[in-house]
């Protein structure tokens, strides 16, 4: 049984990481084309550090993704609590349907309508419009991730805490919050993932001088994606993996003590 | 939690960023380019050729959702069963591939799936028959499953993780087999996570078009593609909006059955 | 899990705040500025650097993926660019809709460097709005090892022998355009009957087509995944360079001649700087750098003369005047675009 489980999990990870491996390998390809292997090179890495356009986009990508996912997680969690505890079934229905809309709308529709909205209220397109747009499409995913945990939560625990004299605030922090934490984390991860990967909505809601990596990469599509992007992705992937290992080690250590 | 005011910020938020854009789309859908009320755009939507596009999009997205569920549920269970020490790392590792750019990952799949691609090179060296699935429906479904799988695994995982183990033990004490305990206890209790997963896979999958263009070889138009063309290439925002409105209604209806099964009526679908 | 998240969140927050402080720290002194909007990877980065150094103008440089993406942003007022580089038919459309500013050619003396045959182009017949940046044709690249028949007509794309070996462009204008050319019509036709014939031809061709592609065509042809493909001439040069078995041919029925030209959008805030930039790009040595970096053809004969001998004389990059006579530039389809889109949807929906 254990072996089957390991094999199953292993093949899922293989499936998820196979394209990443390809990407990494091609970052060392001396050819600009994926169609031929012209030998090993590090020149794309060297070029990367001279390309201010890419580094700029990287800066915006990460700051937007981090800020948008954190803010969307807060808004989405509060929204999920509000929907769950304070709405009548009918109202809940309407609110939930509306919550789904940004997930359901094609990106192009969300992108263009947000752009028109920003232009209409004379909100200057740039960093903050981009950030706001990202929060908008992230929030539903957080709500969707948190709600199931609320449904699952045994509410008599919360009431018991109140009966035992806890203030609602303490009861919430000590009882409800830890229970829904996995949902919040899932929402945060989704928000970050979507934000880092979005092209269409970003394209229409950003202003001059503010680009994220997706905009840069998609705009290369007519000419072919430049291999420096592969090099950048490889470095990012390595950095994330390293960070993960370090954090995991530290946590394990503190838990051991 | 008597703080009723908690609901107000979200109401305002939604009014601004969901209701207004939606109103805009509905407005476009029912007007002519000069701004007069008309049903022309909506009538054009029900052309058989566009209905075919709708059907094909929903079919592919549905198939991908089912596959994601079948593949993802066992994975979520395995993750829950791993040692605490590795668990969070393993969970994060499900999401991390998605942090690489979508276009790059899809191109990488093309490299893997091509006639002379890596998979076929490996197969040939093992003297196995080659597979040619690039530019078929299989490749499109594969691409969709690949890109949306984490959105199925994680919600299920988060629901399974804090499940009351006592219930399952009690059921087993009472003579239920492990399979029975799963069917009668674990699975029903995990349904909210499954619904969330289905929504988060199905809805974006319906409107995706880059996957079908790259892995399907642009052989057919999907609904996301059609809408994009109307907004950009053709510049017919009225028809594009009409298509979106029709799709919204169609999907909300087709997903509507789900909330019927949700006991507490917090579903959010029209029924 | 909890601790990991806390740790990650705190470190992320520190990172963002840190980077933002760095970003805001260097308040720039008032400086001449120029906002440029171009296709991705469509300029030699050195050119931008040199321009900044020489003039002291700070360039804000952004990129777009398609003419249509760019058009929606410029038209809606969601952008404030001073220089944009769209293609032919889009320039016509923008002129018609009053989205472009007339260029003051007295500020662009280097315009004299542009080849006379690339002046008075149909999309800007009075030479008021645009300066050509790059140009090319559409043709067929084929793998000599896989194609034995002569490639001199578009009709080879309908040859049963190459079933599932043919790559078409996933672009309604180009694919319908070459079919119209093969049938002997104009690729700007508005005649429904001619469009219908083209549609039937393309549906007939569909079972033979391996895929409708865009930029992947380069990797595919280099790797030998297909026998022939419809491509833009600039891409053909790249493919030929990487795979010696590849040849480029322009069918005798004629083809599309395309341009990406530099224009100034209406209401540009830095028009003087924009004209300075356009003038800079029209210098032969600058255009040469760009042509070498991008691999497309320059409209400046003096720049062409500086390129490697093999490229200068390559008919794929710089076709003879005789071939050019038999070409047509895309016009703005205006209302007719819906008809083309409908045809394309029907082709895609055919099984």
Entry keywords:
heterotrimer, A: 257 residues, mainly alpha, MetI-like fold, 11 helices, 79% helix, globular, C: 351 residues, alpha/beta, D-Maltodextrin-Binding Protein, domain 2, seven-stranded mixed sheet, three-stranded parallel sheet, 14 helices, 17% strand
Question: What would your notes on this structure say?
Answer:
The complex is a heterotrimer of chains A (257), B (271) and C (351). By secondary structure, chain A is mainly alpha-helical. Helices cover 79% and strands 0% of the residues of chain A. Chain A has eleven helices and no strands. Chain A has helices at residues 2-26, 43-48, 52-86, 89-104, 107-120, 127-152, 155-163, 168-197, 200-205, 213-219, 227-256. Chain B is an all-alpha fold and 271 residues long. Chain B has one domain (25-265): Orthogonal Bundle (MetI-like fold), CATH 1.10.3720.10. In chain B, 74% of the residues lie in helices and 0% in strands. Mean pLDDT of chain B is 87; it is low at 263-271. Chain C is an alpha/beta fold and 351 residues long. In chain C, the strands form three sheets. In chain C, strands 5, 6, 7, 8, 9, 10 and 12 form a seven-stranded mixed β-sheet that branches. In chain C, strands 2-1-3 form a three-stranded parallel β-sheet. Chain C is globular. Chain C is 42% helix and 17% strand. Chain C folds into two domains: 31-135 and 259-318, Periplasmic binding protein-like II (D-Maltodextrin-Binding Protein, domain 2, 3-Layer(aba) Sandwich), CATH 3.40.190; 136-257 and 327-349, 3-Layer(aba) Sandwich (D-Maltodextrin-Binding Protein, domain 2), CATH 3.40.190.10. Classes of the chains: A mainly alpha (257), B mainly alpha (271), C alpha/beta (351). Chain C: This is Spermidine/putrescine transport system substrate-binding protein. Chain C: One of its GO terms (molecular function) is polyamine binding. Chain C: One of its GO terms (biological process) is polyamine transport. Chain C: Spermidine binds at residue 89. Chain C: Keywords: Periplasm, Signal, Transport.
